[in-house]
Amino acid sequence: MGSCAEAQTAAKPAALPSANSEAPVLSASGKQDGSLLIAEDRQVGILSLHAYASYFRQATSSGSLLQGAVLFVFVTLLVVLAEVCRTSTEIWVTLWTEATGDSGQDLPYWLGGYSAILILLILVCLLRAVVFTMVIVRIAAGTHTHMVQKVLRASAPLFFDVVPAGRILNRFSRDLDAMDSQLPDYMAEFLTSLVYVTASAAVCVTVSPFAIVGLVPLCIMFVYVRRYYTCSARELKRLESVSRSPLYVDFQELLTGLVHLRAFGLEQSALRNFERKVDENNQMFFHLHALVPFNVLRGNGLAALFVSIMAAVVVVLGKSLETSLIGLGLSAAAGLVGRLHQTIRFSAEVENNFTSVERLQHFDKVPQEAENTDAPMPVASWPSSGEVVFEEVKLCYRPHLPLVLDGVSFRVLAGQRAGIIGRTGSGKSTCMGALLRLVELAGGRILIDGQDLAKVPLQLLRGHAVAIIPQDPFLFAGTVRDNLDPFGMSSATEHQQALAKTGLWEALGEDGLDSPVHGRGANFSVGQRQLLCFARALLRQARVMLLDEASANIDALTDAALQKTLRTCFSGSTLLIIAHRLSTIADADLLICMDKGKVEEAGPPAALRRKGGVVATMFANAGEPELPAEGRGDLPSTKVSL
Prior knowledge:
By secondary structure, the protein is α/β, with parallel strands linked by helices. Helix content is about 55%, strand content about 10%.
């Protein structure tokens, strides 16, 4: 079997989507080393400007970086204005203290001025809170919507097959929460603390210009301490985020495989493995928070040094300064003691939580399914008959891997029932995936009614032309109506008719279409879930129906009911059936036997059985009786108790 790279070289450029040329996302190196899952990525060093730019872009509906930056500048100005108002109250009280004359006459003036400043401060703070909240909510909603769209349109083999669900859940939970909740709080605190420290320093310099002697070295040491603290905190935050994903992955695997762990007595081994990963995450978490005392000690030390310098200036120049100014200057300097280390910490926390924005940004690189927006739309009546043709189809799941389908060619005429059989790994389900364009072809083409599917928009292909009934039926929490017709495209009468044809309507009881459906259809049997999927496909009225071993997990009696539904309700559609039981496709119009990604035998079942090849051997080993040419007439009763 050839390699995918060779097939891609020989294929037409149009047959290869851009997604196939991209490296997998959320990986450390983007390289495949033979393992299915790829390692989680971790950036090193300072944050890129792209992380900040993408955050600001989400602040506006248009996605404009300039408009987003203007909004944040406006919020910053409101923070500055609020701090100016707060500082003005202290200055006003200082001037009030220095005022001379009859206090009774001056009281309304000073009290009125103080009240006016307070009212202005309240209004500015309210406006700041409203604008800041609106911006943050828009960023959160925009980022989440963007992520969901990227994940829903992701290429299955290049993303879902190589990235564990726990890692995706980590991004959608902790990282998104850090961006939604923690980052806005730290940004607000940082802006407030920075403006407060700046205002306090300005007051000290105003009281005595000699305070700048202590202010300059303070600023230099502040920058040095912040850089040292931020570098360590940023990398520890990244390590903590990366070490958290295995916890989600392991916990999900433990829940899924709990029965097997108990059966083989591996509970303690699994528990030790999980505890080891918890310890690894706790180590990063502990070291990250152990940096806080480091910052507090140095920040308070710098502030205390500045207060000492300011006090020395007051002692030296005390006679030339007003008492009220001395009090104002010392009060402003003392305020630095609590605020300076907070400013350092909040600035570092802003950068730390921007690492979550950086991690969420990686969804921009998720390989997407090809949309073919530039391709001409098929005629409105397409597909009219449902003829399916495979022409030298070659397919691989990822670049540089062997071909899974290697030159597959067959034709299924309109309205025919075609059964696809073969050993496990022979390429049966891959043919279905290729027909739905879950994986883009490396060579050849697939046509429905003469239309190349590579040029058909995915929404039209999957939403109108082709319907599938999977082996594992999936139901969403809600009602039967929601699962039957989630987009409300059909009437209640059509819903009832579809359920009646599948034999499920009577089993629903008095609630009918409003019968509740629990998560994953837990309150329905496997057979009922499968019948509901049949009814859903019936409403679609697709010309091509795919059944991927739809009867593999149900009993023979329910299988008989499903086969009757296929014959009566889908008589005008082209059926491609991957069979678990050979009896379900023994009377098919066409049998396609797959082996190692190639068509080994194809033709009518009776002819293949007379030929004495692989298909005849499979039927003989299964003990299937010879059927009349017109098909099976001795089906068991299809009345099923649900």
